[in-house]
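Exercise 7. Given the components listed, write out the predicted structure of the assembled complex. Treat all entries as one system.
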Amino acid sequence: MAFLEIDRLVKRYGATDILKGISLSVEEGGFLVLVGPSGCGKSTLLSMIAGLDSISEGEVRIAGKRMNELHPSQRDIAMVFQSYALYPNMSVAENIAFGLEMRKVPKAERDKAVAEVAEILQMGHLLKRKPSQLSGGQRQRVAMGRALVRNPQVFLFDEPLSNLDAKLRVDMRTEIKRLHQRMKTTIVYVTHDQIEAMTLATQIAVLRDGVLQQFGTPAEVYNNPANVFVADFMGSPSMNLIPAAVRAENGKTVVALQREGEGDLVLDPGQAGEKLSAVLGKTVLFGIRPEAITDHDGADRNARTLVDAECQVEVVEPAGSDTFVVAHLGGKHVIARMRSDVPVRAGHRAPFTFNMDKAVFFDPQTEQRVA
Amino acid sequence: MSAATVGARPAGSRVLNRIVIYGLLLVFALVYLIPFFVMLVTSLKTMPEIQNGNMLALPKDPTIQPWIKAWGEACVGLTCEGIHGYFWNSIKMVVPAVAISTLLGALNGYVLTKWRFKGHKLVFGLMLFACFIPFQSVLLPMATVLGQFGQLGKVFTNAFGMNLGFGNSTVNLVFVHVVYGLGFTTLFFRNYYEAFPTELVKAAMVDGAGFFQIFRRVLLPNSLPIIVVTVIYQFTNIWNDFLFASSYAGSGDVMPMTVALNNVVNTSTGVVEYNVNMAAAMIAALPTLLVYILAGRYFVRGLMAGAVKG
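Answer.
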């Protein structure tokens, strides 16, 4: 039995279901990230775990114990809010100690706990200040300190980094990961940023319109997306999704991509071929991540099926460490990720290497995975 | 009009604008200040000087005797002990009435914004309605209610030897002012707490604070601006109230200041002592002035800075 279990959870406002039966579970010490576009219900789900929103149907269990009817303060959780929600009238130390004070922890113990947390987060010098005297990053730290000091069973984070600037966000992300490795406390973390989800999570749950799209490890979600939505949402730049015809050629199943002004680009789908033979003659969405389309020398040596093909290059975008090369295939812009010093030029033909081990295929109608 | 044409305006017309604006301001300031000036100088003059002199002239020989007389010897009706007793009557009425109505208004605002229940809009609408009821229309019903209080007081006196405040004129006035102040104080606090970040309340809930702990530790300490506004508003209204005071405590030594002042000025025995009347009126107006000067200093904005976001 998992540590935190979310069992067929439904949230209903009037006749509208905001969450439509979500089931998830995390082991103790796990890091669950709820990710999805805004309005997908991820923050509502977190609020329901916290007890700040009521549960219409289903059950939330922590360590096997039903939480539905318990007040937030009795669930042994701590929460970091998007706005930090620091009490403006209290000093940093008072903010951190407030939860302990409410639980009637003696003053001496409180002071000790605050000092420990300040040590962990390196903010001893800030303890006497008021929240208004802190920078965004410092407030973020205090908000985390307030959660840490309680030493709860589960930490809940509601988009904690969304108010920070880009550089600080990366720093704090690392800091949260470090804290998690050190504390080994179960965390549920809400974000709309798929990179945060990938870097932090041990388990990712992708939500959309109140429906769980996929639940798995970051690698699973990234490499084996369950549907077009997950494929498109995770990863930046996002996965190339190209309409392709499934054909039989010389007794093998192949996929053919339309090219402008020349013949189709025919690719061997590798291991996916067997499953694809079931949809022979139909059109599928061929999904391949930019890093699986490379220049010839940059391709993964261990890949089993590498296909070389020449394509017309539309745009070249050097990004320092890599160069993104845009081509036109199957009526779509296709992004390839090549080495930075690759000698391709816009408007010319260039050789591309497709790593077909990484290719995924979706039904264009149902948007579900075919192979 | 574009910025360029504004900048190209002749300097002469701008000066003229200023003269018109400041001239008007000066005229209005004078209109408001002259009566006050007359009151002040008259209260510092002797009676012969008032009778023979110019109203606007400065006192030739300033004296605070009228103030002392107003405070300690002026006749209110038939008793000639000055207005100081009535001054304290007013204080005893206004302090609890302001404190209770402000606190209850804050509590109402807190519940109506952070602990919403079905029909909260209707409840708030009805409370707002209280702001629009003319006070004259409630005089009689309220008198009936206060009469019942008096009866209850008598029952308590027979049972415990004390009336527990029921039937006491000051308590009655406090009750009336709390009831009729609630509409306004609730309105003030509800609108303030509407903009108060709900995440703070949620954070306090997760931290284990209860309903009243959240109110006392999180909401109230961050409500200083609206508390000041409410206190100034309520204090001024209640202190200056004449209608309720004269209706429910209009005679004897329970009168509040406003009624007593009226009786000082309306006294029909002997010469009209303008200087004493003016001094009494000034004394009656002092507390509201003082509250405004003292509390106004705490009218600070931006107290919520740093609560949320960066």
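Discussion: The interface with chain B takes residues 50, 52, 71-73, 77-79, 81-89, 98-99, 102-103, 130-136, 139, 146, 163-164 of chain A (CB under 8 Å). Chain A has nine helices and 20 strands.
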